[in-house]
Amino acid sequence: MSLLTLSFDNGPDPEVTPRVLDVLASHDITAQFFVLGKQLVTEEGRCLVARARDAGHLIGNHSFTHAIPLGEDPRPDAVEAEIAATDALLAPLVPAPKWFRPFGGGGKLGPHLLSQRAVDHLVRHRYSCVLWNSVPGDWLDPTGWPERALADCAAQPHTLMVLHDIPNASLHALDGFIRRAKDQGLRFTPERPSDCVPILEGRITRDITGLVAPGA
After folding, report:
1. Whole-number Å distance between alpha carbons of 216 and 210
2. Backbone φ, ψ for residue 3 (5° rounding)
3. Mind listing the domains of the chain with CATH numbers?
4. How confident is the model at residue 1 (pLDDT cuts 50, 70, 90)?
5. From the CB of residue 106, how many other CB atoms can be counted at a distance below 10 Å?
6. Contact assessment for residue 145 and residue 107, using Cβ atoms and an 8 Å cutoff
7. Which end of the chain has fewer CB within 10 Å, C or N?
8. What distances in angstroms separate CA 39 from CA 29, 44, 50, 85, 170, one per listed residue?
9. Residue 2 CA to its chain's centroid (Å)
10. Where would I find the NodB homology domain in this sequence (predicted)?
11. Lowest mean pLDDT among 34-38, 71-75, 103-107, 131-135
12. Which residues pair with 162 in a beta bridge?
């Protein structure tokens, strides 16, 4: 039986995230939400994180601005501005464990994801870094993404899928996708495939050379 882990990036959104949470609850699915610091500056955003947390979902840090991958960010204080600033807002709601997903710029994996300073910060503060192995492009094709998602699931034993709880992305087709996935025998799990977690609680678990910008 193939496994599927759902994750949602770039929220919380006041209109979309509550409805995504409702869909997940109706199917008894535990997912992962990687949130942006800029979405947590309002009380509404923080309340949505608390709701997701209380429902049992994993909550992680996905940078503050989601503007440029850390491996390409020239600012000397990029780590503080993106990871630490988000953690300052997130920690009172979800103090531990600490999870981080780097901004990939369209879901690409490569050395643009992280700088060495970012890696050092993640290790020092005992973060786990969560990547992905499926990006079906819900933000580009809000109705057609399930076909690509199901194809990804059929091609590997454990899929960690990136969706988005933002307007014009996963929500419209989410319930139908989950029903189809269940009909095809997929089992939903909150666990992550180990090869998608290259840093676990501050410990580098595999070669990350291809994820870190040279000299950055």
Report:
1. 13
2. -105, 150
3. 3-211 (3.20.20.370)
4. confident
5. 9
6. no
7. N
8. 24, 9, 13, 12, 18
9. 20
10. 2-189
11. 103-107
12. 7
Q: What is the C-alpha to C-alpha distance for residues 206 and 44, in angstroms, rounded to an integer?
A: 38
Of the candidates 20, 34, 13, the one whose C-alpha atom is nearest the C-alpha of residue 130 is: 34
Tokens linked to 61: 């840090």
| Cα(76)–Cα(68) distance, integer angstroms | 14
pLDDT, averaged across the chain: 98
Sign, CA torsion 23/24/25/29: positive
Query: Measured between alpha carbons, how far is 58 from 6 in angstroms, rounded to an integer?
Result: 11
Who contacts 46 (Cβ-Cβ below 8 Å, separation ≥6)? 40, 89, 93
The sign of the CA dihedral 45, 46, 49, 55 is: negative
For strand 199-200 and strand 203-204, is the pairing parallel, antiparallel, or unpaired? antiparallel
Length of the chain: 216
SS3 breakdown of the chain: % helix, strand, coil, rounded to 5? 35, 15, 45
How many Å apart are CA 97 and CA 6, to the nearest integer?
A: 19
Residue 18 contacts residue 12 (beta carbons within 8 Å): no
* Residue 38 identity: K
Distance of CA 195 to the CA centre of its chain: 15
Which uninterrupted H or E stretch holds 23?
A: helix 17-26
Taking only the tens place, the pLDDT of each residue in 130-169 is 999 999 999 999 999 999 999 999 999 999 999 999 999 9
